[in-house]
Amino acid sequence: MACIAQMAPAKLRRMRETGLVHHCLELLSPLGATSSRRMFGGHALYIDGLCVALIIREVLYLKVDDANRAAFEQARCRPFTYTGKNDAVHMLSYYSAPEEAMESPADMAAWARRALAAAVSARAKAPAKKKAPAGKAAPRVARRARTPAS
User: Fold this and answer.
1) pLDDT average, residue stretch 80-97
2) What domains are there in the chain, each with its CATH number?
3) Are 97 and 77 a contacting pair, CB within 8 Å?
4) Tens-place pLDDT, residues 46-55
């Protein structure tokens, strides 16, 4: 068994990420069924199938919208940004969680409710997805035309 000091840095980072993902899922779990999926080099966290949070570079970012953005800004939370092509800075609708909420399920509950409300609102505003075709129709069998009996 290798000691922690001998482990590769990438493996240690994955272990920390996994621990953080589980911790955050536990913090969000009072609001519904939680799940996670690897995404954008981090993780997306879901409550009842709605994406409510991201973990990027070991920081939890909660979903925001116009109705709750001011509360996050007042708590001095930072927006999630990334640099794209041509050094353009993009800001998504996610803000870091307040530090005190990361250690207190009771404190996190109020912030998670805001994130869930923002996710519900975003889903309601999203255009309806077109249904994918159910599959190709079964091939038609050519039938010979019947000729009248003479």
Assistant:
1) 90
2) 4-119 (3.30.1460.30)
3) yes
4) 999 999 999 9
Which residues are registered as beta bridge partners of 36?
45
What strand order describes the sheet that includes 50-56?
34-39, 42-47, 50-56, 59-63, 89-96, 79-83
For residue 50, how many other CB atoms are within 10 A of its CB? 16
Inter-residue contact 72 to 64 (CB < 8 Å) = yes
pTM for the model: 0.73
User: How far are the Cα atoms of 44, 92, 100, 108 from residue 83, in angstroms, in the given order?
Assistant: 19, 11, 28, 29
* C-alpha dihedral sign at 71, 76, 80, 81: positive
